[in-house]
Write a structure and sequence with these properties.
about 425 residues, MetI-like fold, 13 helices, 11 strands, transport, membrane, transmembrane, sn-glycerol-3-phosphate transport system permease protein UgpE, MetI-like_sf
């Protein structure tokens, strides 16, 4: 018998462990994706190749490769085949001896906050060449660093890989009035007073491993903050309403006698078997005729009562000792006084179950907010996430950041009230 019980216990532990792992994998994958700088659920992007110069006057992300000069400076570029490197590289020749800057630039169009380093291969024709590396926004506001900081004495005549940390750029100069630091162009600037002959290849930016900017981007992008407020406000109203009104109805079924009590209770129980989709159209027509579309009334009033919560409170209250209520009534306490001062304090475990059920149902609901609202000001988080996906394409990192923000309150509420929830469920089970 002992061995049999031990085998059952071990099997139960194994099953629970497997279920826990299967539950945590999607959750962990969601949080992991939300802090990546790019990629999908199962793939990560390590870098972005801006230009390898194998496709001529267009870089690897579809932007132009061009030059500009000031005053009497001159600059030319040429693509040279290199059999040793199995590809082509770019040769840049600039003459600024007569004054003015000469600039080679190529389109970038990236938010540089997500990058960790900039790297490229480079060599000089005679060695010792010095120039500036820069990033500029669409208005020409730039952040730049000197290449000799990373290559003391200037370039070598052999190919060298130059790696520049993005933190060395003062990226606050780029789009100073915006949170996003979109560098429109990458450029190499040759200062006045010299002649230069530089060859470069494989210009790329390496992504950061992890970033929390995705969360901030989601919260401040468009009306997402409004979605968050709507979900909080609607959930608060629904949870409060369920804890009060469902408890009142459950108390009436448990303690009061009135005509057709059993029939009405059976109707309440029977409504649990009606799918939400069946009443979707009647609810929409009713809300429309009342003029409540795109209002908080439409999103809160239909959810203030839940048949399951009524059933739960009725079962729980019916098993509470009635002597306490009778004593309170003898002392002159009214029905409302008995309900709020005697019954509800004793039913706190059941109230916790009602609260968490109402919270999860309201916080995660998608169908009714979707069909009863059609303006961004009234959308909730689940609907907002669906729209965010459709508007931005499948931007997995930001989509998972939004999903994490949506899931976090549910996890917090459950962790805080888990003891009350378990106590309420077990009390209902042991008391019949």
């Amino acid at each position: 018998m002992v061995n049999k019980n031990s085998s059952v216990l071990i099997a139960s532990i194994i099953v629970l462990t497997i279920m826990l792992i299967l539950t945590m994998i999607p959750l962990g994958l969601m949080f992991y994706t939300s802090i990546k700088t790019g990629g999908t659920l199962f793939e990560s992007v390590e870098n972005i190749l801006v230009a390898d110069f194998d496709i001529g006057s267009t870089n690897s992300i579809g932007g132009p490769i061009a030059t500009r000069q000031a005053q009497q400076a001159a600059i030319t570029t040429e693509f040279i085949d290199d059999k040793i490197r199995s590809g082509r590289f770019l040769s840049i020749k600039a003459d600024t001896s007569k004054g003015g800057d000469a600039v080679f630039w190529t389109r970038l169009g990236q938010d540089v906050r997500k990058f960790d380093t900039l790297e490229f291969s480079c060599r000089g024709a005679s060695g010792g060449e010095k120039f500036f590396i820069g990033l500029e926004d669409v208005k020409g506001r730039a952040a730049e660093v000197a290449v000799d900081k990373y290559m003391p004495g200037g370039l070598k005549t052999s190919w060298q890989k130059i790696i520049i940390p993005l933190k060395d750029f003062d990226i606050l100069k780029i789009n100073p009035d915006l949170r996003e630091k979109i560098a429109e162009n990458f450029y190499i600037k040759f200062s006045p007073g010299a002649s230069y002959a530089v060859e470069m290849d494989d210009l790329r930016f390496d992504f950061k491993k992890f970033t929390f900017n995705n969360y901030i981007d989601v919260l401040i992008s468009g009306p997402f903050g409004r979605y968050f407020f709507n979900s909080i406000f609607i959930t608060f109203c629904v949870v409060t309403g369920n804890m009060i009104f469902s408890s009142m109805v459950g108390y009436a079924f448990a303690r009061k006698e009135f005509p057709f009590k059993k029939s009405i209770f059976m109707i309440v129980i029977g409504s649990l078997m009606i799918p939400t989709q069946v009443i979707m159209v009647p609810v929409f027509i009713l809300i429309k005729n009342l003029g409540w579309l795109n209002t908080y009334w439409a999103l809160t009033l239909p959810a203030l009562l839940c048949p399951f919560n009524i059933f739960l409170m009725r079962q729980y209250i019916s098993k509470l000792p009635i002597s306490l209520e009778e004593a309170a009534r003898i002392d002159g306490c009214s029905d409302f006084g008995i309900f709020f001062r005697v019954v509800l304090p004793l039913a706190r475990p059941a109230l916790a179950v009602i609260g968490i059920n109402a919270f999860m149902g309201s916080w995660n609901t998608f169908l009714y907010p979707f069909i009863l609202t059609n303006t961004p000001q009234m959308r909730t988080l689940p609907v907002g996430l669906a729209l965010y996906k459709s508007l931005q394409g499948v931007d997995w990192v930001h989509l998972m950041a939004g999903s994490s923000i949506t899931a976090l309150p549910v996890i917090i509420v459950f962790l805080i009230f888990q003891k009350n929830i378990i106590a309420g469920l077990t009390a209902g089970a042991t008391k019949g």
